[in-house]
Design goal:
- The protein is globular, with a radius of gyration of 19 Å.
- Strands 3-4-5-10-11-12-13-14 form an 8-stranded parallel barrel. The protein has a two-stranded antiparallel ribbon with strand order 1-2.
- The chain has 10 helices and 14 strands.
- The protein has one domain: TIM Barrel (Alpha-Beta Barrel), CATH 3.20.20.70.
- By secondary structure, the protein is α/β, with parallel strands linked by helices.
- It is about 30% helix and about 15% strand.
- It binds flavin mononucleotide.
- The site of flavin mononucleotide has 22 residues, from strand 4.
């Protein structure tokens, strides 16, 4: 029997009103001090009918920032800014997790304290660009993190998780995907360390798992999820052993008892099958909720739900132009297209001014 996305789902101690998740989407609209403002509260509030919203990636420290005007969650002002966002979502009956982010080498000296080099597992520059001063430019040359610096990064994630709860979030998603710091450590194309954090599969997974364990310790496994992208080349990462690496990681995440894994299946925002990978293996290894993402539409999500390949489905790009995506999918209403010029940065245009479809035009 065909299953439906439009029924409630129990995620840990939360009841989600449906199985449609808003994927994390960076929009570069934080105010001074990297504080999310009223417009951001309005934007997320408009999208609160998703079963769960996952916030845009949010840096845990200044060192963890890689793009202009992305929000943080390490200062009191940022916590207060986020409280407006979580209140707006909760007022409409929605649920929201924050995605906790350290970009590692995907940064630029202009964004770092005193123009310092961005940090990375190894001093290997990423072949990718960042968004600074309203334009896309090459990332800076990174420096390799010293062993003694790693506990400080784990601690920054831990504090950010505590701040997330103080800001009213329902939980946090550790950003372990898309070529950022934790993914850089996991993948051997970016990590040539010879200490306990490089080399073997276990060593390369260590930082991601230590961070996740610290977050669990701080706020509880029921409020902790993680995003991974095993085969995505996003931001210039590559891996010679993705299946074995991520089978191991997911076994360990399962042992930590976290509430979900959120898996970008394939190339982030690109083909789902450019690199062979058995996502079913991750699904089988993990006892709690599996959130699938990448290139889903209603038809594909419904068929994967019916085949029990995933529990929840995250939609990214469709949520930019369709604040009422859930209702549109449910009623078969057409989806609005998005304006590429207003995705990153700016104000209300292309952010909060995409209208919900008028009830009268529903079929
Ligand atoms: C504008 C934009 C911003 C994004 N920002 C993030 C982000 O902050 N964190 C993240 O993990 N992925 C981010 N992604 C990736 C999306 O979450 C998602 O994985 C991707 O768009 C594929 O899903 P879709 O086919 O439903 O759009 C972003 C994608 C886009 C288009």
């Amino acid at each position: 029997m065909t299953k439906t996305l439009f029924e409630p789902y129990t995620l840990g101690s939360l009841t989600l009103s449906n199985r449609i998740i808003m994927a994390p989407l960076t929009r570069n609209r934080a105010g001074p001090g990297f504080v999310p403002g009223d417009l951001t509260a309005e934007y997320y509030g408009q999208r609160a009918s998703a079963g769960l919203l996952i916030s845009e990636a949010t840096q845990i420290s200044q060192q963890g920032q890689g793009y202009q005007d992305t929000p943080g969650i390490y200062s009191q002002a940022q916590i207060e800014g986020w409280r407006k966002v979580t209140s707006a979502v909760h007022a409409k009956g929605g649920r929201i997790f924050v995605q906790l982010w350290h970009v590692g080498r995907v940064s630029h000296i202009e964004l770092q304290e005193n123009g310092a080099a961005p940090v990375a597992p190894s001093a290997i520059r990423a072949k990718t660009k960042t968004f600074v001063n309203d334009g896309f430019i090459d990332v800076s040359e990174p420096r390799a993190l010293k062993l003694h610096e790693l506990p400080g990064i784990v601690d920054d994630f831990r504090k950010a998780a505590a701040n997330a709860v103080a800001a009213g979030f329902d939980g946090v998603e550790v950003h372990g995907a898309n070529g950022y710091l934790l993914d850089q450590f996991a993948k051997d194309g970016a990590n040539v360390r010879t200490d306990a954090y490089g080399g073997s599969i276990e060593n390369r997974a260590r930082l991601m798992l230590e961070v996740t364990a610290a977050v669990v310790e701080e706020i509880g496994a029921e409020r902790t999820g993680i995003r991974i992208s095993p085969v995505s080349p996003a931001n210039g990462v590559s891996s010679s052993d993705a299946q074995a690496q991520f089978d191991y990681i997911v076994d360990q995440l399962d042992a930590l008892g976290i509430v979900y894994i959120h898996v970008v299946e394939g190339t982030t925002g690109g083909p789902r099958d450019a690199t062979p990978f058995d996502f079913g293996s991750l699904r089988r290894r993990f006892g709690n909720t599996y959130i699938a993402n990448n290139g889903y539409d209603l038809e594909l999500a419904t068929s994967h739900l019916t085949e029990d390949k995933a529990d929840l489905f995250a939609f990214g790009r469709p949520f930019i132009g369709n604040p009422d995506l859930v209702e549109r999918l449910q009623t078969g209403a057409p989806l609005a297209q998005i304006n590429p010029a207003t995705i990153y940065g700016g104000g209300a245009a292309g952010y909060t001014d995409y209208p919900a479809i008028a009830a009268a035009s529903r079929r």
